[in-house]
Amino acid sequence: MCLFAEKVGWTMQRSEERLVEEFCKEVGVRREVLQVWMHNNKRTLGKRDRATRSRNHKPR
């Protein structure tokens, strides 16, 4: 779920509704469950992911 949340930017936009529906069906969770999980983990996992990406970024 973390990879999916990163992919959609930790928010569920109306324009990505089909993608969200497909993911929920594949994983076996309701949309509401995914939404709550993303809300609860956005600060901790989202920050960690951004920090990892910035450390791995190599300046030109």
What value does the average pLDDT take? Answer: 85
| Backbone structural class | mainly alpha
Query: What fold name stands as the CATH topology?
Result: Arc Repressor Mutant, subunit A
Please write the string of helix (H) and strand (E) elements: HHH
> What is the CATH architecture term?
Orthogonal Bundle
How would you sum up the global shape? Answer: globular
GO molecular function: DNA-binding transcription factor activity; transcription cis-regulatory region binding
InterPro entries: Homeodomain-like_sf (IPR009057), Homeodomain_ZF_HD (IPR006455)
GO biological process, one term: regulation of developmental process
Protein name: Octamer-binding transcription factor
Label this structure with key terms.
about 60 residues; mainly alpha; Arc Repressor Mutant, subunit A; globular
Structure description:
The structure is a single chain. Helices cover 72% and strands 0% of the residues. It has 60 residues and is mainly α. The model has no long low-confidence stretch (mean pLDDT 85). This is Octamer-binding transcription factor.
Task: Present the secondary structure layout.
Blueprint: H1 2-7, H2 17-27, H3 31-56
Give a short synopsis of this structure.
InterPro entries: Homeodomain-like_sf, Homeodomain_ZF_HD. With about 60 residues, this protein is mainly α. The protein is built from three helices and no strands.
